[in-house]
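INFO batch 0412 | record 1 of 1 | parsing
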Amino acid sequence: MAQLKAISPTSSINLASCGPKRNTLSNPDNFICSRKFSSLQELSGKSSSLHGHAIVSNNGPISLTHKNRGIRAVLSSDTGAEASKATKGGGLRGKLNKVVLAYSGGLDTSVIVPWLRENYGCEVVCFTADVGQGIKELDGLEEKAKASGACQLVVKDLKEEFVRDYIFPCLRAGAVYERKYLLGTSMARPVIAKAMVDVAREVGADAVSHGCTGKGNDQVRFELTFFALNPELNVVAPWREWDITGREDAIEYAKKHNVPVPVTKKSIYSRDRNLWHLSHEGDILEDPANEPKKDMYMMSVDPEDAPNQPEYVEIGIDSGIPVSLDGNTLSPASLLAELNEIGGRHGIGRIDLVENRLVGMKSRGVYETPGGTILFNAVRELETLTLDRETIQVKDSLALKYAELVYAGRWFDPLRESMDAFMEKITETTTGSVTLKLYKGSVSVTGRTSPYSLYREDISSFESGDIYDQADAAGFIRLYGLPMRVRAMLKKGI
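INFO prediction complete | emitting tokens
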């Protein structure tokens, strides 16, 4: 799968002095900067009038795109002449004009850049999404893209959109795949793929590409989103086409095409991280009989090493959506990030799962979802006050299908959208607060309150009341049990 890296909000970047420039990327609203900002926040503030929500740096000129959620960086490169030659003719497999590639800067995506140019004679626009992976430094991402032969780099901060428009709807629906999985990777792919479709439109690309393998779920999630949002885009999946079969082949290809091989140490695990979760696959986990190693976990401490004193948190919820922590209203991404920190230090949210992949095989993965586990418990507990029995049963049955659709990459399917409309309507009164106790890997509810609570103490009390007469139960039981009584009478010949 494509491993997409984030940009640190504290990274220092070099740009040139700000002033207008015509025809930059054929957009009259672009401008060039050339001074150094101390942080990405400062640059973000300077660019707020342009409605840009993403930051990208480059040693060459960059352009800030008006009225879209990204800042595009033009990567000047010594390979520019080669790129021009490549785009004049065709490639080994055909001809495309411009391809937007989901890009991480790792070995696989670095190799895909020259492979696309060689095989499709196209320009390559690299795209990186920040969905809360936690990578703290830009770490020369633009230089890597330039060295690989890309003509442009686009970076977009999608964290708030990811949590608000993808995570929280799944949370409200109660979507859990195969009893355990809270859909961390499944929810992230459509928001990334949607941004790629947007970027393709902005830069005039006729194709998109990803680094997902032919065995996984992510290839389906990316491509179904592409199909749903722009069926005219061509899709290139190198892992299903090229002769590269592993890391060594990729290194050899990189050397042959003068692509710097990333020197970062390769993890023995395959990991995917975003603001919702961190997944671990591979190595000893491929044998379901093996216990995960203690040092594998990154978001949470071992429950045995967690504090000996519990911690209480109060989650405020409005119409099925979390809005506050301990009385403080926070943005969706900020709320989740804070709960990840709290839950992580108490060892919350670890699961070990053997799941059925969409493509048919089983796979074993270990997931860390500290903040998500806290929120899931909070929303579910509040529903015990605000939803009646029949509604909960229907909602739970639909949640299974909802989770299946999300897992299968059908986020933009009309069925999921229709089910989401039901979930939004049915949780209109799921408003209130839930207090939870966190202790050594466990989450337990200690209190819940709602102005729309269906719980009435005057009815539920064992004391007699005017609304519920206990004597009425006798007639109810006789009628409710009539079918069972008739069946028994038949067997006895009565």
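INFO post-check: Residues 1-84 have pLDDT under 50 and may be disordered.
INFO record closed
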